[in-house]
Amino acid sequence: MLSAAKRCFSSTRFNPYKVTVLGAGGGIGQPLSLLLKLNHKVTDLRLYDLKGAPGVAADLSHIPTNSVVKGFAPEDSGLQGALKGTDVVLIPAGVPRKPGMTRDDLFSINASIVRDLASAVAENAPDAAVLVISNPVNSTVPIVSQVLKGKGVYNPKKLFGVTTLDVIRASRFISEVADTNPTQEKVNVVGGHSGITIIPLLSQTKHTNLDAATKDALINRIQFGGDEVVKAKNGAGSATLSMAQAGARFANSVLQGLDGEADVIENAFVDSPLYKSEGIDFFASPVKLGPHGVEKIYSIGEVSSEEEELLAKCKETLKKNIEKGEKFVTQA
């Protein structure tokens, strides 16, 4: 007769998922891979990087969770092996920000990296959900979309720009101002994933009585919170650990959606109808996740007059960022 513990375990059903991290040896990639190794939904974890991925995989493989970890290098068709038949691809590959750099300053370097990885995804895992972390997300997501379109495999429901870091920062920062529990703070952060394109809708929270100076400082900190980390690391890196947590959280939500769990909602930068009439093809807002990826894209909801002004500035910049990414591929 089975013990209670064994009966409990044997009756638990795990849907197995293959998950690939492209850029697994980097500052985001390593902690992200660790968090994915701890996710019971991930049973096949593939790690790829130009160097170091096999070592990271060997290290993680000693952790006793229900998954197999394999590391892949460029030689011997490593990229193909890492991607073949995978369900979810996370792309944190690229160079980190340094002091004085904006996310857009990274474009010239990271654009080529993301383009080439997107091409490999199209050829080896055309049905996978693709989660783009590489900055600048406002431009790299359109790059991936253009590459996938060129290969004839673009599925707008399965392409995501991960903006979760903005959401968790907003929860943390507003809790510090209001002296509350950050795990209970929910902030709808919309727009894009760079500077003034990040719009935290504070009017939709319970903290509508903040004075103007406090509110302005809070919004600025949410928009430019990454600068704090870059400065504190003295040029040695950018936000890696918090970004890994954000990426792992969003990946878990995508897996929950694929599993058919109900009411899985996260904010994400996706191919959106909200402002297409204004020439903005991608926008971050709350998204319902399901077995086919994006099931529903929600509007941003009611906003204050101040937030309307922030939104206008956001859209102006965001449109340029998106066009920059699209042109990088189409004019190559």
Brief characterization of the structure:
With about 325 residues, the protein is α/β, with parallel strands linked by helices. The chain is built from eleven helices and eleven strands.
How would you portray this structure in words?
It is built from eleven helices and eleven strands. By secondary structure, the protein is α/β, with parallel strands linked by helices. It folds into two domains: 147 residues, 3-Layer(aba) Sandwich (Rossmann fold); 167 residues, Alpha-Beta Complex (L-2-Hydroxyisocaproate Dehydrogenase, Chain A, domain 2), CATH 3.90.110. The chain has a six-stranded parallel sheet, with helices on both faces. Strands 9-10-11 form a three-stranded antiparallel sheet. A two-stranded antiparallel sheet has the order 7-8. Helix 2 links the parallel strand 1 and strand 2. Helix 5 packs parallel to helix 6. The protein is globular and about 60 Å long. The N terminus is likely disordered. It holds the Pfam family Ldh_1_N. Keywords: NAD, Oxidoreductase, Tricarboxylic acid cycle. InterPro entries: L-lactate/malate_DH, Lactate/malate_DH_C, Lactate/malate_DH_N, Lactate_DH/Glyco_Ohase_4_C, Malate_DH_AS, Malate_DH_type1, NAD(P)-bd_dom_sf. Belongs to the LDH/MDH superfamily. MDH type 1 family. Its EC number is 1.1.1.37.
